[in-house]
Hints:
By secondary structure, the chain is an alpha/beta fold. Helix content is 26%, strand content 30%. The chain has helices at residues 4-13, 47-55, 69-76, 88-97, 131-142, 196-205; strands at residues 22-25, 31-32, 59-63, 80-85, 102-104, 115-120, 145-156, 174-181, 184-185, 189-192, 208-215, 220-227. The chain has a 7-stranded mixed beta sheet with strand order 5-4-3-6-7-12-11, sandwiched between helices. The longest helix is centred in the middle third of the chain and has 12 residues, at 131-142. It is globular, with a radius of gyration of 17 Å.
Amino acid sequence: MEDIFGQALFDYFKNAGKHKLWINNTYGPKEEMPLDVYFRIEDEMPDLELIALNKCNGKVLDIGAGAGSHALMLQDKGLEITALDISGLAVTIMQQRGVKHAIAKDIFTYQADKYDTLLLMMNGIGLCGTIKQLRLFLRHTKTLLNKGGQLLFDSSDIAYLYDGDIPKGDYYGELLYQYAYKGQKTNWFKWLYIDHEKLKVVAAEEGWATEVLYEDDMDQYLVRLTPVY
């Protein structure tokens, strides 16, 4: 799959972003994916993200780091931060914006030194796609944490999309998306939104304790997971 998302980010960064990035879905009309949100400064970030950044400590791995805005904030605070994204173009942007350690890797195969904090912002946990893949993610990331380490991420309960008529079968938060940009489209891919009650169950089964740190009135929440040894 071509790096359509990374190309859209890169064009925006280089002031060549005359085209819109669209997300097709299976539940409604296509939606524009605003690119400016990936380049926000601290004053523009919502409370949820600021709380998460303040909870980061020690050696940090920012997973799905995008254009590097969170990594830059943590770097400015003096934390040792590695920014990871599967998009090579995103990593190029981060390097040009001043992120000292940005790498293009797939988190599911990433092996490295251990970290004290693993961070995924802007529903970055969605990259798991499915509950099954979330379980694999939790098993793998446990191997990347120092003792006493933490996994911080946000997600939301999207039951509201279904007006009380939640479909049977696969978990309702496993959504299908497709990026469209400049006449190109990605393959369809799954993106996960998980309600915190379901997350608590899955996390406990995989050996993690769950603590909800923040919730807003839009069914969005920030959570800290810690391994149970």
